[in-house]
Amino acid sequence: MPPAIELSGVTKRFSDQVALDGIDLTVDHGAFCVLLGPSGCGKSTLLRTAAGLENPTSGAIRIAGKLVADVARGLHVAPGARDLGMVFQSYALWPHKTVRENITWPLRIAGLAEAERKSRLIEVAEMLNITPYLARYPSELSGGQQQRVAIARAIAPRPSLLLFDEPLSNLDARLRVEMRTELLTLHRQTDSTIVYVTHDQVEAMTMATQIVVMNEGRIEQDAATATLLSEPQTAFVAGFVGNPPANLLTLRRNGTGWALGAQTIAFHSLPLDHETVRAMVRPARIGLAKQPGERRVAARFVEALPFGAQHFIQLESDAGRITALVDDWQARAYGSGLYVELPARPDAVFDSDGARLT
Amino acid sequence: MAIDAKMGGRPLPFPVGRLLTPTFSVTTGALVLIGLLVIVPLAGIATALASAEGPDAISDVFTGRIARNMLWVPLTNTFTIGFVVAASCVLLGGAVAWLVTMTDMPMRRTIGVLAALPFMIPTFAVALSWTVLFGDDRLGSASMGLFAQLGFDMPAWLAWGGVPVTLVLIAHLYSIAYMMIAAALVLVGRDMTAAAEIAGASRAQILRSIVFPVVTPTIIAAGALCFAEAVSSFSAPAILGLPVRFHTLATRAYGAIETGTPERGYVLIAVMIVVAGAFLALSAFLQRRGQAFTTVTGKAGQRGRMTLGGWKWPFALAALALVITTTIVPALALLFSSLSPRTGALFTDPTLHYWFGASDPAIAQGQAGVLRNPQLLHAVWVTLGVGAMTGVAALACGLVIGSAIARTKHGAMAQLLKQLSFLPLLVPGLAIGAAFIGFYGAPIGPLPSLYGTPAILVLAGVAATLPFAVQAVASARAQIAPDLEESARIAGAGPLRILGAITVPLAAGKLIAGFVLVFVKMVRDLDLVILLYTPQLPLLTVLAFRYASDGFAQFAHAIAVIILLVSVGAHLLASGFGRASQPWLHD
Ligand SMILES: Nc1ncnc2c1ncn2[C@@H]1O[C@H](COP(=O)(O)OP(=O)(O)O)[C@@H](O)[C@H]1O
Ligand SMILES: [Mg+2]
Predict the structure, then answer these.
(1) Which one of A23, A240, A248, A343 has the minimum C-beta count within 10 Å?
(2) How confident is the model at residue B297 (pLDDT cuts 50, 70, 90)?
(3) Interval between CA A6 and ligand 1 midpoint (Å)
(4) Residue B75 and residue B253 in contact, taking contact as beta carbons nearer than 8 Å
(5) What is the mean pLDDT of chain A?
């Protein structure tokens, strides 16, 4: 089966700004692909370009193997002919149509017969628990109900590809968790491919089969969830993913050692052909000590956050802020001094541009 | 301290204390204010019609020998003007709104700013500027317009009567339609049309099934408002219609009251109220149904702009022509006319005589220039004073009524207060003036007649502008989280102290904007004050009207320029205070 969607070399430029910068992305049929990245990185633009709401500046897009956009050939298939559904962050329900009309109008546009429209309506309304509200107007529904209607409207035409743009960001925390489970069930039931945009990594980690981390219009890494955490490909991913994200320490070469702030420390297996590198060290691999020593850096205590039986300890050092995860913690005064012990080998090393070295 | 404690709600030993509990006293105050300002005067018209002469006047007007000239012809004229104006305003205002908010038309920001201005230019000024451009010599050479002077043969229908009245009202009112429809179009988010596009809908289907239905309630409301304003207008038909005996209900009612048959005037005024009010009430009803779909939650999406392609510049130029014709052209026409030595000689030998000149028996029967004329200077002060007093008084009433509405929250009392305070919107200015003459123009018990005092002008002004004052207070209140006031109440502060210490300081910006709006409405108003005016209390608009009817065009036009400057200047100041009056221009 061909990939559900395939973008090759897609660039999107707005007059003064590059929103997408040479995107290559393949999403397999049946995947739950999450686009993750800080706000403004181009996630919505990618989705809207895939949907055909924006024309790419260059590149090509295939959906289920069929070419739907190719700038070189001047091809641009209309959004309605791409066999996809989209759920917007604003829900975008038509305010003058009832819930029933919101769901059935697209079906009528698609030319479905009355009986078929009715059975689809019943089916999606039941799937999303909105049967009691079919006669209401969107403004008469709560945020969570509006969200369900928006999803029902998108899946009723049974598109093979579903696009979600931060669909849960306007819901409260409890509803958000509830809807995550429902979306997963829905994914299973409808046998569709989902491309899902969010800036919330918990959402991404819990739902995705494939996570695509974006930054400044580019893809930083495209991987399965576990890989993303264990093997970040760029310094951006290392500093963005994880809760809390790993420490990124800037090291300057000093003879055979490495200067971290004012101190020089011996690290194993760091590439000596670089002047500056950025070392990723996970909080769990950082120890705390009362005395100075080898690979120990002076630091001041800032804050302790309980995390299950453990504590995340925030510290301030010459080399910037450092987070440690420790088992035992005795309360301390703010600003009191202690030493951070770094591991002999960082978890990953990046060059000064953020590319992975080891 | 002691007073505060009492007002804080601690029961007093006397039963009268109940009247002093904050909620009760504020609500009572609000009801008394609305009663005195709105209900009683309007009821006065009804009483007059029920009085001894009332029934005769009614039958005269409806079925008598004069019925045709008194009622039916003016009514037909009024309706025709109302419908043509409403339809044209919705078309023009809607088109400009669509171009400014939904397309990539060049210069749309400039056009948007200019399109909001015509509403700030008083109708009578636009009407006077019409005579400057299109007047003919039917009324003697004094009314020769620019085109007639240039040798064009002005057809009579273009110089005077129904056509110019209609066009002048359109030029003034399309701007309201623009503001309303633009605000509604902004609600049609980019995502809403995108969702339809994804469903496979064509452009035509999207316009027909999504965009139009969403803005329809607003289009209806805008049409109804333009219709009501057009049928209520006195100044446009008075300046452009009366000289050729073209009458609307307003001019007929005015004529009847001025010529000593006020009962007939009241009958006509009642007809006007019904005609204007019915349409507004109908639209309010449709609006309420429509509200179900104007408020949608969720984060509003960005707006996409339709590309006009090759039509870009034709559209931009057409829109620009419209907004310039309705703003800069009338202003310049009035200015140049006030600088011309004689009427009928625009652009030849410009002179400042009509502005600064000393009395010269050879010119204009020896009248001095407007800025040297004691009567006029007096009028400037009276006008500004009455405007400022009305602004302060209206806002004070708005604050009392607003507090009462807020305190009674969602109860039936709040609804009643809201409805009643918006009632004056349904009543033409001329009718409010007539009602005040009828009621406060005669002594009431021990109280003397207010006729001829500034008080009656201020009271009528407050009544007419009450909806705007209440609205300004409401939007100012929206700036303040309710818990701020509530925490002050818990701390034991009385209503006056809360008003002074919390509400007013926090809401100052919106309140200033509200004051300026009321002030300007008063300064440029002619319809309301035309019946209340006395020679001891000269007002600028009335003087301009009198000068124009007596053939002293330059003086009239100079005064119009002054009013126009005050009006536009204050409005721009106020929209600076109120900021986001056109948020769609800033994205
Ligand atoms: N229609 C547009 N016109 C101009 N710039 C845009 C438009 N849409 C998005 N952008 C810009 O492109 C960048 C990416 O935006 P977006 O895709 O919305 O980011 P995200 O969804 O990741 O928050 C942003 O800097 C945004 O300002
Ligand atoms: Mg986005």
Answers:
(1) A343
(2) very low
(3) 21
(4) no
(5) 90
Which of the listed CATH numbers 3.40.50.300, 3.40.250.10, 3.40.640.10, 3.30.2010.10 matches domain A5-236?
3.40.50.300
Helices (H), B51-72: 54-63, 67
Topology (CATH) of B53-343? MetI-like fold (1.10.3720)
Q: Provide the pLDDT confidence category of residue B19 given band limits of 50, 70 and 90.
A: very low
Task: Find chain A residues with C-beta within 8 A of B209's C-beta.
Answer: 105
Rounded to the nearest angstrom, the gap between the alpha carbon of residue A236 and the centroid of all alpha carbons in its chain is 13
Does residue B27 have a pLDDT over 60? yes
Pocket test for ligand 1, best of A20, A41, A45 (most atoms within 8 A of CB): A45
Is the confidence at residue B17, as pLDDT, over 50?
A: no
Domain A237-351 has CATH 3.40.605.10: no
CA distance B490 to B497: 13
Please report residues of B whose CB lies closer than 8 A to that of A90: 189, 191, 298-301
ipTM of this model? 0.84
Residue B189 with chain A: CB contacts under 8 Å: 90, 92
Q: What is the pLDDT of residues B49-83, one digit of tens each?
A: 777 677 777 787 788 788 888 889 999 999 999 99
Q: Is residue B200 less than 8 Å (CB to CB) from chain A?
A: yes
| Gap from CA of A16 to ligand 2 centroid (Å) | 18
Residue B245 vs residue B426, higher pLDDT: B245
Closest by Cα among B235, B230, B229 to B254: B235
Two structure tokens written together for A320: 């910037």
* Residues at Cβ < 5 Å from ligand 2 ion: A 44
Virtual torsion, Cα B108, B113, B114, B118, nearest 10 deg: 140
Residue ranges of chain A with per-residue pLDDT less than 70: none
- Buried-state track A300-310, b at ≥16 Cβ within 10 A, e below 16: ebeebeeeeeb
pLDDT at B520: 86
Q: What is the pLDDT of residues A178-201, one digit of tens each?
A: 889 999 999 998 889 999 999 888
Interface check B236 vs A, CB under 8 A: no
Residues B479-493 pLDDT 10s: 666 667 677 777 777
What pLDDT is stored for residue A237 in this prediction?
93
Q: Is A261 left (phi over 0), alpha (psi -120 to 50) or beta?
A: left
| CB of A307 shorter than 6 A to ligand 1 | no
CA B159 from chain centre, in angstroms, equals: 25
Contact A106 B197 (CB under 8 A): no
Mean pLDDT, chain B, rounded, equals: 80
Beta carbons of A92 and B191 less than 8 Å apart: yes
Chain B residue with the nearest C-alpha to that of A51: B198
How many Cβ atoms sit within 10 Å of the Cβ of residue B17? 14
Chains A–B, number of C-beta pairs less than 8 Å apart: 102
Q: Which of B7-21, B442-456, B462-476 has the highest mean pLDDT?
A: B462-476
Closest alpha carbon within chain A to B292: A139
User: A280 C-alpha to center of ligand 2: Å?
Assistant: 29
Q: From its phi and psi, is residue A214 left (phi > 0), alpha (psi between -120 and 50) or beta?
A: beta
So what's the pLDDT on residue B21?
A: 60
Q: Do B199 and A105 touch (CB under 8 A)?
A: yes
Nearest protein Cα to ligand 1, atom 6: A14
Dump pLDDT digits (tens) for B410-433: 678 887 888 888 888 778 888 888
